[in-house]
Each structure stands twice: as structure tokens, then as C-alpha cells.
Amino acid sequence: MEFNSNSAFMYVVVTVVIAFVLLQSVVFFVKAWKRGKELGMDTQALKKTIGASAIFTIAPAFAILLGVIALSNALGFPLPWLRLSVIGSLTYEATAAAAAATAVGSSLSEHITDPKVFAAIAWVMALGIIPGLVLVPIFGKKIEKGISNIKSKDSKWGKIFLSGLFLGMISAFLGLVFAHVHEGLTGWIPVFVMFASAALMMICGLIRKLFNAKWIEDYALPISLLGGMALSIPITTLVQNILG
Amino acid sequence: MKQEMSYRDSIHKTGRIWILSALAMLLAVPAAICIYYSAWPPIGGVLKGLLSIVPIFWTVGVIEVFTYVPMLGTGGSYLGFVTGNLANLKVPCALNSMDRAGVQPGTDEGEVISTLAIATSSIVTTLIIALGVLLLSQITPVLESPTLQPAFENILPALFGALGVVFVSKDWKIAVAPLLFMVTLFLLVPSLSSAVGILVPVGALIAIGVARVLYKKGML
User: Fold this and answer.
1) Does B8 touch chain A (CB under 8 A)?
2) Distance from CA of A225 to the nearest CA of B (A)
3) CA–CA gap between residue B219 and residue B81 (Å, rounded)
């Protein structure tokens, strides 16, 4: 069989797996919705969660699509499409693909035409990210029990413990924003964008308080995210102009 | 209480079936490529490729399970770990949704909101990428236009800047120490940016440690 990374065969295989994962999302969606009803949760609140999550997802989803395009030069569309629709993230997939290509004496700068090289890349991308899929079913329940033990001993501390966990994650990613500062003014761009987005979030909070606009609460994160991304364009231009 | 246990247990049961089936399907893809094209790659090459990514990504994977499962809840974890893009999409989405709905992670209501948020986010992502692949020729020039590049490059700062305001302002006493530590660390050792996944639990340990001291002193 003549190998082609964009063959109908590849599209069929990939579509089946993506459809399966999509089905899982739908099943869990329905389960959670029914459970919410069972608990007597406000339908309006559930709908708001869905609407706000959908809007929030749009911009990051387009960023992921850009990743598909970036990898498609070397790997065709189906494989990157699959890899970025399920598990992983661009950082992982791109690194894994590049490492595998190098290991078999090829490179991602060219279109892969050798099926053996392509298969090696596909194996490495699949095997390099297994832990989550194996460990969640093994340890998921135990981790939950651990957390609920902390909570049952001291519910206030349990709440603080979880806040600490969030803040650990958020501070690691906020710190990451400063990783390019050593490059000079251009390296400050992410920092400026971070502050712009933070300012937008504060403005949303202010509007909420001043005009009693409760609706803005639900959309504050997508507004600040998109606003921050949009402002990054003039910020970048400004920095480039200053640098001449 | 009994009701809660049985719901969680049923999610664990279904979740395990789904996540392991997903794992089998994901491994079936490269196998199918090998069989269909009768092209078996050199094992040595695959191992060599794995060797260069496994030390870091398996470590990050293990850490992610222990840090994100408590945040995402039962259903959210089984779904989130299959659909991926956790740190840049699913976790912020779930945290923000629970915060907006005024529910705590780990409670019955938190479980519902988190799962709904992650499921919605997964469905929307899958649809956008699928549509994007279909309409690629129309969409590529827009997405790759130089004007829009800064916007996509700065998605993480824009996301965590906003998220930071929400969560840092709530517990600033706990947040100050890990924030200062991380900013200083990245200023001094910029090359650590590829290991941010490993630094998440470091930040969490600092935050929880500080919180414990403040809590014992009655300052929280």
C-alpha cells in the first residue's frame, strides 16, 4: 500500500477515535446534567456554566488548531488532528514528534513520506503520554479519599488546602510569564499582556459592583482572555516601535 | 451520603471503562498504521525517541494526576485526562466555573459543575478543530496572519493574568509566597519554562505550607 499521511485510511482511523472521545464527552455531559437535576441544582446555573465554558473555550481551541496546522507540514493533517483533539497539548505533541523524528534519523522540517518513520513518530507520541490514562483509573479514587479525609478532619483546613493547590498551579504559570524578561523589552510583552488581562478582570469586577451587572460575572474570564489577547497586538506593535 | 457514594462509585466504574477503552484506541492507531502499510519501525528508533521524552513527560504526567484530580473531581478527571489540554484549558475552565457557580471542588455540586464545564469545553474544542480541518484552506491565512500572531503567542499570560486576579485576590495571604518564589525562579532560571509542569507541585507545597502556618496562627 502506497503510504500517504493524508490518505483516506488515515482520516477514517482518526475520525473513529475522535468520534469515540466526543461520545465520552457527551455521555459525561448527560450524566452530570442529570445528577445536577437530581441534586435540585438551578437549571439556569447549569446553563450558565455550559454557556460560559463554551465561550471561554473558543480562543484556546483556535490556538490548538494552529498547532494542528504547524505539525501538518511534516505529518499531514489526520495524525496532528487526532493528537491535538485528545490528551496532550501542543507542547507535548510537538516535542514528542520532534524527538521521534530525530531518533529515526529524520526531521519535522520535511514532509514525512517513509511509513516506517511516520509509524515510529505515531508510536512515540502515543506512548509518551500514557501515565494519565493509566494512573487516573488506578489512583483516582485513592486521591479523592485522601482529600475527603483531610476535609472530614477539619473542613476549613480542607478548603484552604485546595486553595493552596490552585494557587500553586496559578503561581507556577504566572511565574512562567516572566521567563523571557532576560531577553529585554520584547520579553516583557507577555508580562504586559498578563497585566492588561488582569486589569480587564478588575474592570469586570468594578462594572459588576457599580452597575450591579451580575451577568458580567459569568463572562468575565472569556472577556479578559480575549481582551488580553487582542491587546497583545497593539502592545507588541508598541514595543517594536520603541525598539525601532 | 449513601447516594453520594453510589453516584461517585458509578462514575468511577464508567470512567474506568471509558478511559481504558480510550487508551486502547489511542494505541490501536499506530498499530493500524503499521499493519495497513506493513511498515514496522525499528524498535530501537522508537525506544530512542521515547527515551528522550519519557523522563520529563511521564514525570509531568504523574504529577498532573496528583495535582489535577482533586481540582477536577471524579467525572472531570476521567474526561479531562482523555481530552487533554489540561493546564491551558480544562483546569482553568473548571476552576472558574466552580468559582462562578459558588460551589466547592469535591462537593456534589462541584462535581456536577466541573464535569459540565470540562465536557462542554471538550465538545467545543473537538468541533472547532474538526471544522478547522475541514475549512483549512479558508482558515489558515487568517490564523497564520502576522497581525494575529501576538494574540496566539500570548494566550497563557492572558489566561493566567485574569485567573490570577480571581484566585489571588481571594487568598492573597497564601498566594504571595509561591508567587514571589515562582517569579524570582523564572527570572533567574528562564530555561525552567519547559519544566513548568514539574514546578506546579513545588508551588502547591509552598502555598500549602504557608497556609498551614497561617492557619495554625489563626490568620486565615
Assistant:
1) yes
2) 5
3) 36
